[in-house]
Write a structure and sequence with these properties.
- The chain has three domains: 100 residues, Fumarase C, Chain B, domain 1; 225 residues, Up-down Bundle (Fumarase C, Chain A, domain 2), CATH 1.20.200; 90 residues, Fumarase/aspartase (C-terminal domain) (Ribonucleotide Reductase Protein R1, domain 1).
- It is built from 19 helices and four strands.
- The strands form two sheets. A two-stranded antiparallel ribbon has the order 1-2. The chain has a two-stranded antiparallel ribbon with strand order 3-4.
- The two termini are 41 Å apart.
Length: 462
């Protein structure tokens, strides 16, 4: 088959070179965008008188037929074609004749592929964001159901202060909310149309770039023709956003893996989202969480690959940029499958509130509150800190909690201790006294949940 660019060549391309150069095997994914962009380009050429009305109608009907046949499976992607652009154009010409050869007037594959990728990534921003919304709704439901479920909060993986499960999950809600907002920002920034930029320097034809931009749902045309075809920063930004999503899912997964262990027993995974061992019949493994954690590196790899590809490229287009697609497509598929499975896994988790509460009580998470109690009694905080530190050592030797000591034992450390200490260090009270904005106390937590619900209600589909 003759190449679109074969006129100045006297030899056939070496078979190995052709296989190395061709991209149809992966950029066929862009067929809808390619045809939609071609339809808009043809309409614009017709409006400007560059194509006749009859030619425009022929081209549009031919492109519609190709789209229908690809959709139905009647037309298969043939590896003899170099890329999705040559595939569509060749089939169009076969179907409608000479008019098909006029479609590429005023256009280069450079601005064509830049358009296809922007349109594809724009769509993916919306799809990934909707999956985040599904996950956020599951997290918010868990938060609403667990405002009374006390558990230890951790720093350095050491028990630190008591919180609630709602508060802990609320932290992940905030992370994933920012991820959704970043995708919206990314979509807004990339939403300029490169079509009409040509190979790098525009064209002598009187194209109406504002028309094609509007017709394809863009906010306007790109502002510099060289930049239009030679940068992929919008794709790097998108992959960065996907990497942040995976980082948050990986952290979440790590905690759930720990919580699912016999040592913690905070959660139990549903059978539908767990697997077993081929040799150990007692095992129930959190494989979804482990795979999400593992696949995070795969998405990071796509981001680093494209950053490395782009870092030394001179203006304008270079063939290196063909390497933007396979890693990006793989990263998108990976993130979307991880979000789907993680959401289902999270929705079916069983939480062991009794175990969580005992863990909070047994880990001296109320030690800070005991120090604060002494401060209220007039003891400087630094002195109170030392008193409670010695008290904790005493409890460790006795294998008990602060609240298990008698008043006489407490007063061996400070005469300021009274009967009201027991109420001050109860786990539930320790949580509820933390009432500042964003804290785990009842009222603060209810306010966070109210704000998150309000934010979800204002959600705008991209």
């Amino acid at each position: 088959m003759a190449q679109l660019w074969g006129g100045r060549f006297t030899k056939q391309t070496d078979a190995a070179v052709k296989a190395f150069n061709d991209s149809l095997r992966f950029d066929c994914r862009l067929w809808k965008e390619d045809i939609e962009g071609s339809c808009a380009h043809a309409e614009m050429l017709g409006r400007k008188g560059i194509l006749t009305s009859a030619e425009t109608e022929e081209i549009l009907a031919g492109l519609k037929g190709i789209a229908q046949d690809i959709e139905s499976g009647a037309l298969q992607f043939d590896p003899q074609y170099e890329d999705i652009h040559s595939f569509v154009e060749a089939h169009l010409t076969d179907r409608i004749g000479a008019a098909g050869k006029k479609l590429h007037t005023g256009r280069s594959r450079n601005d064509q592929v830049a358009l296809d990728m922007r349109m594809y990534i724009r769509t993916q921003c919306g799809l990934v964001r909707e999956q985040l919304r599904d996950l956020l709704e599951v997290i918010l439901r868990i938060m609403e159901e667990n405002t009374e479920t006390c558990m230890p909060g951790f720093t350095h993986l050491q028990k630190a202060q008591p919180v609630t499960l709602a508060h802990h999950f609320g932290a992940y809600f905030e992370m994933l909310r920012r991820d959704a907002e970043r995708l919206q920002d990314c979509r807004d920034r990339l939403n300029l149309c490169p079509l009409g930029a040509g190979a790098l320097a525009g064209t002598t034809y009187p194209l109406d770039r504002n028309y094609t931009a509007s017709r394809l749902g863009f906010d306007g045309p790109t502002r510099n023709s060289m930049d239009s075809v030679s940068d992929r920063d919008y794709l790097i930004e998108f992959l960065s956003d996907l990497s942040l999503i995976m980082m948050h899912l990986s952290r979440f997964s790590e905690e759930l893996i720990l919580w699912n262990s016999n040592e913690y027993r905070f959660v139990e995974m549903d059978d539908a989202y767990s697997t077993g061992s081929s040799i150990m019949p007692q095992k129930k493994n959190p494989d979804i969480c482990e795979l999400v954690r593992g696949k995070t590196g795969r998405v990071y790899g796509a981001l680093n690959a494209l950053l490395t590809t782009m870092k030394g490229l001179p203006l304008a287009y270079n063939k290196d940029m063909q390497e933007d697609k396979e890693p990006a497509f793989d990263a998108i598929d990976t993130v979307r499958s991880c979000l789907e499975l993680f959401t289902g896994m999270l929705a079916t988790l069983r939480f062991r509130g009794d175990v969580m509460r005992r863990s909070a009580a047994n880990g001296f998470t109320n030690a800070t509150d005991a120090a604060d109690y002494l401060v209220v009694k007039g003891i400087p905080f630094r002195d109170a800190h030392g008193i409670i530190g010695r008290l904790v050592l005493y409890c460790i030797d006795k294998d008990c909690g602060i609240e298990d000591l008698s008043l006489d034992e407490l007063r061996e450390f400070s005469d300021a201790f009274g009967e009201d200490l027991y109420d001050a260090v109860s786990i539930r009270n320790c949580v509820d006294r933390r009432g500042t904005a964003g804290a785990p106390g009842r009222e603060a937590m209810q306010e966070q949940i109210r704000l998150e619900k309000e934010w979800l209600r204002s959600w705008q589909t991209l």
